[in-house]
Amino acid sequence: MQNNRIEMNKRQLIECVPNFSEGQDLSIIKEITDEIEKVDGVKLLDVDPGAATNRTVVTFVGEPEPVIEAAFRAIKKASELIDMSKHKGEHPRMGATDVCPLVPVANISMEETAKYAHKLAERAGSELDIPFYMYESAATKKDRKNLAIVRAGEYEGLPQKLKKANWKPDYGPARFNSKSGATAIGARDFLVAYNINLNTTSVRRANSIAFDIREKGRLKRKGGKVNGAILKNKKGDPLRQKGSCKSVKAIGWFIEEYGVAQISMNLTNLNDTSLHKAFEETRKSANKRGLRVTGSELVGLVPLKVLLDAGKYFLSLQKRSIGVSESELIKIAVKSLGLDELGPFDPQKKIIEYQLRDNNLSPLLSMDLQDFADETASESPAPGGGSIAAYVGALGISLGTMVANLSSHRKVWDSRWEEFSKWANQGQELKDQLLKMVDEDTNSFNGIIAAIRLPKSNEAEKTIRAKAIQDATKHAIEVPLKVMELSLESFNVLKGMAKTGNPNSISDAGVGALCARAAVRGAYLNVMINSGDLDDKKYVTSISKKAGKMVKLADKEEAEVLKLVNKALGI
Length: 571
Description:
Elements: H1 2-8, E1 13-16, E2 19-20, H2 26-37, E3 42-50, E4 55-62, H3 64-81, E5 97-106, H4 110-127, E6 132-136, H5 147-150, H6 158-161, E7 183-187, E8 192-198, H7 203-213, E9 218-219, E10 240-241, E11 248-255, E12 260-267, H8 275-288, E13 293-299, H9 304-317, H10 326-337, H11 347-350, H12 352-356, H13 369-377, H14 385-408, H15 417-452, H16 459-500, H17 506-531, H18 537-569
Parallel strand pairs: 5-7, 6-7
Antiparallel strand pairs: 1-4, 1-5, 2-4, 2-5, 3-4, 8-12, 8-13, 9-10, 11-12
Helix pairs in contact: 2-3, 3-4, 7-8, 9-10, 14-15, 14-16, 14-17, 15-16, 16-17, 16-18, 17-18
């Protein structure tokens, strides 16, 4: 039923990103991830092993209870298979499961996520012979918030650390487990693990760059010399020179499997420092030191916005329109950041939204043009006029966007690229929203059918069924109404392109206006036919009046665009 589908989209989701101290024996990692995949309601998104770091980052997502169940099983299995007394690797580590952060993804607060982190740690601490420390938003003490402080001394320092009263574990025994070490469990914001490749093998030079960019920076020394005495304040505390990137942690290391040094960094707040800013600051520092950035790699997954923002940034540097498709922005980001230098970069596997996307909710958009037309022409009642209206609207604004992009690339208008880029970006956003409505209209129709098919054998069931039908019908009205609003808004771009766009493409703006008006009028018919089945007549009257005004406005807007087009064409 439609309403049930909408409610499912509001479910709480958290991500878990455990780091296991094994990156060379993939059979061990497979056994651990098998435990995760045994839990219903959990989706394994990514497994990213590193041979040189001897570490694997695993990412999975789901509702809170299944996620912490899967995390517990993974921690338990890692404790059985990984022997820390034999572990060597480039990355700092203190346990078989080194860290296990929980990250809020949807409809859940950081405070709630932290409670689930404690629930996981409490169970693991009572059932497994492993010390557990809480960090970040789940920390029990202020001086344990920072993971680097919790992990200081690493595995080798644990025997002495556990003897200190101030380092008693939050959960589990305060004694050294030579096989499993200790584990940090936390709740944190989305963190991007990112490595930038250099054309050097020197760890010392890589670290110099890392000190330039990381927020912590470097110690201040007398005369600014590398071997100069450390400068201190009146309290005797060392003075530091901050790095250029806030909320970034970074170190330099050498990766034998690639034969190059890297800057390995964690971006802990993307609002403070974006992926492309971290890349650019690293590039600037490397260039000053006679080095060159050759590419980069993402460890684990990233939000879609990270790569879209990067794509827009690099296009803007080229003074090119940012109003291009999502796939084009991602392609520009991948090439500009060199994310495919060390191996193929598959956006479908590395972008978290793509991994979570339910293609069953967008079957029409996944069709080619022939299949879409054939499906529309079949005896099935859906897709119908509502979906077609949305698609026609998407095509209309696509034409306006095309004119904007052609205008921004016109040789004699180089100075106006930014003006047309804004038009194109606005058009792309409207196009994407209208495309979503193509499937949403069919989904709303299916929601009504599902409601009608609910049982009605007694009065209680009849009441539930009647309400479900009314709710689904209201949704089936609101979808084409949204199509009308979006299509009407597209006239802003179409009229702008008819007035100021590339004159060689003015006819395309005219065709776009014809499509936009058809979309408004087509969606209007769907609003009206669905309104006839709604009992709330006050709502129907209000919607009908609103939709009627939009139809008149669309007629007026289309006429204005066509007047401009016809005049330019001498018609």
